[in-house]
Fold:
Amino acid sequence: METEAQTEIHSAADIVTARQRGRTLALQLGFNGAEVTLIAAAISEVARNIVDHAKKGEIVMSSVMSSATSNSGSGRRGIQIIARDEGPGIPDVAQAMQYGYSTRRGLGVGLPGAKWLMDEFDIDSRLGRGTTVTMKKWLPYK
Structure:
């Protein structure tokens, strides 16, 4: 079973490839159909931002274990998605994370939408140096 997938992002076709790889990995990890769809949608949002704002970047998806433990004493498994670019950076991350804010006349749900779809979401952006978005989705406890 493959536990990591990396996709270079340069075009809309790469967004499709990243979504497909994310879906495949999520299914291998045990996510159900609805969860897989949410993960693929979040991947689309961050990949679209790379194409629109940075022109190129990468998405790395991997299996991950949480350090938190359940009553059974074992950590949770999940998927981690890291989207990286060396684009212009985001001048105001707080503003970019507000629903409805858009720099390209869109609906303004890209980054906030991706955050809503995932269990954990972190964004690190530096002007002139790029942006890294780290997202995680956890499998339910069994």
DSSP finds four helices and five strands in the chain. The chain has one domain: 4-138. The beta strands are 4-9, 57-69, 75-85, 120-126, 130-138.
